[in-house]
User: What shape does this take?
Amino acid sequence: MTINFTNMQTPKTLYQDKKILLVDDDKDVLLSLSASLRIAGYRNVVALDDSRRAMDALERDRFSLVLLDLLMPHVSGKDLLENIVEAFPDIPVVVVTAVDDLDSVVSCIRAGAQNYLLKPVRESRLLATVENALRIKVLEDENQALKKKFFDNKPAHPEAFQEIITVDPRMEAIFSYLEAIAGTPYPILITGESGTGKELIAGSIRKLSGCKGEFIAVNVAGLDDALLSDVLFGHKKGAFTGADRDRDGLLRKAENGCVFLDEIGDMEVSSQLKLLRLLQHREYHPIGSDQIQKTNAKFVMATNRNLENAMKEGKFRADLFYRLSTHVIHIPPLRERKADLPFLLRHFIQKHAGVWGKKPPDYRPDLLDLLGRYHFPGNVRELENIIANAVAVSKGKFLDAEGVKKSIHLEKGTEGKGPDPLADGGFEPIPTLKEVEARHIISALQYTNNNISHAARLLGIDYTTLHRKLKKISPFR
Assistant: This one.
């Protein structure tokens, strides 16, 4: 007998997609265990009443947990346990048996069982054991993925990051980390200053996670508790004045998708409590309804605030802070990624020239020096706005550099040093050796589509040397 609940409608739980194998010769026990797991939200449960078929099932499918009886004909549970641990050491095994014997418990734990439950098993004990085993399994899988990425920091799915223009090693490390944890059931927190591209990172997470549903982005800054609850949870007709019909919230639209909540550091404390409950239990109530709704959406959060300081000041709940601390990604500001400037500059010129139906203008090399001395408080978003404006007003072959100069305010002490690097009159000064080297490196990177390894080989230097030069060349000081 095989019981497969894969295609049945079930509630949502944190590990709903994890596949669980039950092996027991007692069909009544299989039905009971399977029903308990299905009702709790586990939708991928496979039950076998013939222990001889267990290893074949494990070979065919990717299981995350095995629940195993001991006293079975053909292949005993103890022998099957040893076979599973030897062939699939990464799959946790929980023994569920009527054998109440200390020697059996010790023997099974020594053989590799993660836990030992006595029949009849209380449902609460069963579900707690399953959830704990799956939680450990998820963390171990993430740890293994991170170890692999540590030795291979090149993203395996660069297409997920194609909208993010960068050659910065820290950004590449972030990409590798995201590939390792994108499938996690836990929320992911993105921190960084405004304009660094947090929503683009959230979009990459959604692509990597394989979510088939919509990507729903909500900026919670300025939304009071009532409005945010209505936006996310929806409401029932008559819930408040003006609620003349039922309305689904964005969580319903995000079914099987991804919810991106931006600026969560600005949430009211009452909203923080609702968010905590949502993340813990994956359930909510539409306004005016006493019916619990479940969600299987992936949650990605972002903030430009220091949540730890906000927590110490009593403005951010400590329990929510720690719930969000499992996976945290910090995006460095543009002023710390000056090697990205030439690539971002060219990208935004081409993008906004297309918007205006113009041929992309060129730019004078010293424009990079000017931009390299600017602090960019608005980060990449500010750079794009500056270039968009310059492209819009440009009429000749070159980008309107005067427009760029008017758009930025150089930090104190950077102006008035020597001749204007963007002056139109007179002869262009002879470039220094550092400037020639910088332009040569930039050309090599452009030729290789920003592949640093290929560019290094083209230039006849090693990968580390090229990285060092990217940090030192004069336009990126």
Q: What stands out?
A: Residues 168 and 337 are 6 Å apart (CA to CA). The longest strand covers residues 298-303.
